[in-house]
Backbone:
């Protein structure tokens, strides 16, 4: 691969590790490619953020391919998620501590399947207050961390599939196929509530974006090493 081929455009499948931000993954690849190509203004961007507490597929576009970012962002997504039933957190995930606990003895696998059927198709979903959505020009999570009272408006999303993978020790593992803009954290919270209990997200991995799969990706450091080995200056 030559520097010109990079500039002409590349689509990279990045398997983002846990605790990395999407910005850090982009920055790692941008720095490496700028250094190897000598292009200080080389464009690099991602098509859809993943939270630090999530792993999996992050599509990063380089050079002229950055013009196609919006098309990737609109594609259907697939996730595997772990939902801890019986407890809630303000952020709907592990970013914040448990704020309430609920009984789970009444929850059965049959009941779970009945509840999940209500979350397929077009649904109205309220995003978590700990999200990057702007309220009055400020990120909602900034207002939430400052203790401000925030009202989030519902959004229409589509969930095509929810498949139960396992249910053990109050942890429900599911596979979800959904539209752009779906908050899996909100889904975890709403599923817990619909089971007359509570729920929050304890693991999340994005496995697909459209037909692109995380298993075909490389980590940010792996991509950096790859480019160092194959780029001919």
Residues:
């Amino acid at each position: 691969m030559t520097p010109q081929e990079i500039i002409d455009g590349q689509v990279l499948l990045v398997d983002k590790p846990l605790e990395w931000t999407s910005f850090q993954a982009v920055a790692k690849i941008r720095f490496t490619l700028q250094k190897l190509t000598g292009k200080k203004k080389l464009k690099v961007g991602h098509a859809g953020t993943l939270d630090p507490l999530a792993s999996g597929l992050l599509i990063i576009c380089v050079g002229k391919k950055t013009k196609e970012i919006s098309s990737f962002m609109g594609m259907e997504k697939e996730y595997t998620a772990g939902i801890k039933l019986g407890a809630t957190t303000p952020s709907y995930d592990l970013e914040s501590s448990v704020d309430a606990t609920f009984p789970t003895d009444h929850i059965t696998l049959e009941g779970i399947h009945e509840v999940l059927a209500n979350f397929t198709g077009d649904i109205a979903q309220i995003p978590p207050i700990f999200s990057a959505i702007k309220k009055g020009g400020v990120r909602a999570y900034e207002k939430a961390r400052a203790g401000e009272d925030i009202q989030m408006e519902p959004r229409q999303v589509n969930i095509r599939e929810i498949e139960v993978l396992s249910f053990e020790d109050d942890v429900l593992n599911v596979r979800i196929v959904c539209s752009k803009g779906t908050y899996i954290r909100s889904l975890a919270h709403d599923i817990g509530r619909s089971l007359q209990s509570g729920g929050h997200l304890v693991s999340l991995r994005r496995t697909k974006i459209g037909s692109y799969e995380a298993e075909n990706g490389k980590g940010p450091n792996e991509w950096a090493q790859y480019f160092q080995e194959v780029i001919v200056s």
User: Anything to note?
Assistant: The chain has two domains: 3-74+211-230, 77-209. The chain is about 25% helix and 30% strand. Residues 77-209 form a domain with the Pseudouridine synthase fold (CATH 3.30.2350.10). The chain has a mean pLDDT of 93.
